[in-house]
C-alpha cells in the first residue's frame, strides 16, 4: 500500500527535525548520513554547488562551527509528491550566536528535491536563499 | 511513446531560450505565459516567495527594467526526470547595463521543478542564488 501524503509528510518532518536537533543542536555531523542521499547536491548562497555527502558534511561542519549556529528550525510550506519522490518548498529560521555578540536569527526559504534511499526520505537536491 | 530524455531536454532548452530571447532580449513579458505554469512560484534571493504567474510577470518586468537587464543565458547542469515531471539544476549568466555604467555580469545557479502544462514543459517552482 503506497504511503499517504500525511505519512510522507511525517517522514519528511522527522528528517527535517534531525537536521535541527542533531546537526545544529548536538553538532553530530554523522547524522547527515540520514538526511542527505549519497549523491546529494547543495547549492548554498555565496558559494558554488557542492556535490556528495562527504563534501556536504564538511560544508555544514564548517558553517555551524564558524558561525556558532545553534538551531535551524525547518517548516514545510508545500510538499508535492511526484513519482516516488517529492519536491518541498519550506522555510527555515537559523539562530547564530557569535562569541561576544547577541544571538541573531536569519529567515531562509528553500526548495528540496527528496528521494527515498535506504528506506528513508532524504534530501537529494537542496537550495536556499535569504528573504532579505 | 514516452519522450526520451533527449527530447525532454530539448523541450526544456527551448523554454529556457525563450526566457533569454523574449523576456530579457525583447522585454516581451507575455512570453512568461509559455515559461511558467499558472500556479508557479518563484523564490528570489532577498525577497519573499512570489506565487502565481501574474505576480511573477510583475517581478520580472520590474527587475529587467530597473536593472536594465539585457540577457539571461541559462544552461542545464543536470536534468532529473521524475514521474511526468523533472527537476533541473542549472546555471545562468545575467547581463545588466545600468545607465552610465559599464555592463556587468552575474553568475547564478538555480533549481527548477518542471511540469508539463498545455503540452509544454514549464517552470513550476523556480529558486536561485548567487555564487558570490
What does this structure look like?
The structure is a homodimer of 132-residue chains. With 132 residues, chain A is an alpha+beta fold. Chain A has a single domain (5-130), classed as Nuclear Transport Factor 2, Chain: A (Roll), CATH 3.10.450.50. Helices cover 27% and strands 46% of the residues of chain A. Chain A has two helices and six strands, in the order αββαββββ. Chain A has helices at residues 5-25, 53-67, and strands at residues 36-43, 50-51, 69-82, 85-96, 104-117, 120-130. Chain A has a six-stranded mixed β-sheet, with helices on one face. In chain A, a hairpin with a 2-residue loop joins strand 5 and strand 6 (120-130). In chain A, 28% of the residues are buried. The mean pLDDT of chain A is 95. Chains A and B meet through strand 3, strand 4, strand 5 and strand 6 of A and strand 3, strand 4, strand 5 and strand 6 of B.
List keywords for this structure.
homodimer, 132 residues, alpha+beta, Nuclear Transport Factor 2, Chain: A, six-stranded mixed β-sheet, 6 strands, globular
Q: Which SSEs are present, and which pair or pack?
A:
The structure is a homodimer of 132-residue chains.
Chain A: H1 5-25, E1 36-43, E2 50-51, H2 53-67, E3 69-82, E4 85-96, E5 104-117, E6 120-130
Parallel strand pairs in A: 1-6
Antiparallel strand pairs in A: 1-2, 3-4, 4-5, 5-6
Amino acid at each position: 500500500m503506497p504511503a499517504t501524503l500525511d505519512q510522507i509528510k511525517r517522514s519528511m518532518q522527522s528528517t527535517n527535525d534531525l537536521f535541527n536537533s542533531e546537526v545544529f543542536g548536538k553538532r553530530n555531523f554523522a547524522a547527515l548520513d540520514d538526511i542527505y542521499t549519497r549523491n546529494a547536491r547543495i547549492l548554498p548562497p555565496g558559494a558554488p554547488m557542492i556535490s556528495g555527502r562527504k563534501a556536504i558534511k564538511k560544508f555544514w561542519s564548517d558553517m555551524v562551527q564558524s558561525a556558532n549556529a545553534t538551531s535551524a528550525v525547518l517548516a514545510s510550506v508545500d510538499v508535492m509528491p511526484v513519482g516516488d519522490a517529492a519536491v518541498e518548498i519550506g522555510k527555515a529560521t537559523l539562530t547564530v550566536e557569535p562569541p561576544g555578540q547577541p544571538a541573531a536569527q536569519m529567515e531562509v526559504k528553500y526548495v528540496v528535491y527528496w528521494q527515498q534511499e535506504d528506506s528513508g526520505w532524504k534530501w537529494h537536491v537542496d537550495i536556499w536563499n535569504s528573504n532579505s
